[in-house]
């Protein structure tokens, strides 16, 4: 809507915050524990670096799209994000079905 109510802004933010909160902790745990114990510090550093790089790149790309495409920039930014999220989900799904190789 052109001028949404406070409630129409708050409930999606709560939903996103809950989703991110429920995802982030188990995801971090899985990433850190998949590294050898002596390299967990490096894995943690790479996790933080990748997260910051993704956030910075995403914000820059959204700003670029809003600047280049004007009014349709919002729609195109969300469409691009949905496509990338779907691609990431497919890649993650492919990893689930692959058998683990024992070292």
UniProtKB/TrEMBL annotation:
Signal peptide: none
Keyword Glycoprotein in record: no
Annotated InterPro entries: MFS_trans_sf (IPR036259)
Transmembrane regions: 6-23, 78-97
UniProt-annotated location(s): Cell inner membrane
One Gene Ontology term, aspect cellular component: plasma membrane
Keywords: Cell inner membrane, Cell membrane, Membrane, Transmembrane, Transmembrane helix
Membrane topology: Multi-pass membrane protein
Main location: membrane
Protein name: MFS transporter
């Amino acid at each position: 809507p052109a001028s949404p109510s406070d409630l129409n802004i708050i409930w999606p933010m709560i939903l996103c915050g809950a989703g991110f909160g429920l995802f982030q902790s188990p995801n971090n745990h899985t990433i850190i524990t998949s590294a050898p114990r002596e390299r967990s510090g490096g894995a943690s550093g790479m996790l933080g670096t990748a997260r910051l790089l993704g956030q910075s790149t995403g914000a820059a790309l959204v700003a670029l799209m809003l600047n280049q495409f004007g009014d349709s920039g919002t729609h195109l930014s969300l469409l691009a994000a949905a496509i990338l999220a779907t691609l990431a989900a497919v890649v993650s799904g492919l990893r689930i079905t692959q058998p683990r190789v024992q070292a």
